[in-house]
Amino acid sequence: MSGERSVRTAGERRPYDQGPVPVLMYHSIGGSDRLAVRPEAFADQMAYLKDNGFTPLPFSGRARPAERPVVITFDDGYADFHEHALPVLDRYGFAATVFVTTGWLRDAGPCAAGRPLGRMLSWRQTEEIAATGVEIGAHSHSHAQLDQLAAPALAEELRRSRGLLEERLGRRIAAMAYPYGYSSARVRREVRACGYTAACAVANAVMDDRHDPFAVPRLTVRAATSLHGFDRALDGRGFGTDHVLTKGYAVLRRSRYAARRLRGVA
Domain NodB homology: where (predicted)? Predict the structure, then answer.
């Protein structure tokens, strides 16, 4: 899972090699669940970054060094990103990365897969977002628990999402984010084999040179995150319970997958 480390191969590196970088993880901007951030709160958080000298960078870019770099990411591909987040990012000239679940797109048609959790982006909106300079990454095709899939299904989830995005957007898709944050050494090997150069987990820690580029930790911004909590999150503080739960759940999921293999399910 996201807490595991693995040895990098020659030439591999994190998305940024310029010291610790907080990578923020958002979901819906305007929804009603515990991970959905109110548009007003999101605007306040972006103003905080601007006022405090942060420079938002795209996740997979090899950008110029920045004194206070930060990466802003969004999972799943909710339609309210286009409505509420994009105008704020554009106002400040902020870079961001949106990880899209291709089977959840509103007009996915015969490629529809999985069960969307809300109102999702359309292909046209995804194209419009990409045209503004926002990076688009993959978030699998059906939002499956990748670490529980057998090899053929895992490869299909990773390759199909990347292929659909590249075909429709006409650009290389270099990064992906694990649905639910779940991964394993086996999943990360397949992500690398599918041609991605980096991948996001969760872990609620600040990215630094200890971290596997295929398990980059992110900091969860929730509905309940106050501006004071946002400030603490940028330093990776306030996530003690999350760290303990993440490590314990990683062991549980590995055991679960091993049991499925013994039963011949995976």
Answer: 68-266
pTM of the model: 0.86
Estimate to the nearest angstrom the gap between the alpha carbon of 193 and the chain centroid.
19
Q: Which fold has domain 23-262?
A: TIM Barrel (3.20.20)
Domain ranges of the chain: 23-262
Picking from 142, 206, 151, 153, the residue whose alpha carbon sits closest to that of residue 180 is 142
d(CA 105, CA 113): 9
pLDDT in tens, the chain (266 residues): 333 434 344 345 455 556 789 999 999 999 999 999 999 999 999 999 999 999 999 998 656 678 899 999 999 999 999 999 999 999 999 999 999 999 999 999 999 999 999 999 999 999 999 999 999 999 999 999 999 999 999 999 999 999 999 999 999 999 999 999 999 999 999 999 999 999 999 989 999 988 899 999 999 999 999 999 999 999 888 765 344 445 444 444 444 544 555 566 56
d(CA 58, CA 134): 8
CB neighbourhood size of 227 (10 A)? 12
Residues 6+ positions from 103 with CB-CB distance below 8 Å: 111, 112, 113, 114, 141, 142, 143, 161
Q: Which long-range contacts (CB under 8 A, 24 or more apart) does 261-265 make?
A: 265/150
**CA distances from residue 82 to 90, 93, 196, 200, 218 in whole angstroms, order as listed:** 11, 15, 25, 21, 22
Tokens of 245: 């739960």
170's tokens: 């006409």
Residue type, 15: P
CB neighbour class for 198 (10 Å; exposed up to 12, middle 13-18, buried from 19): buried
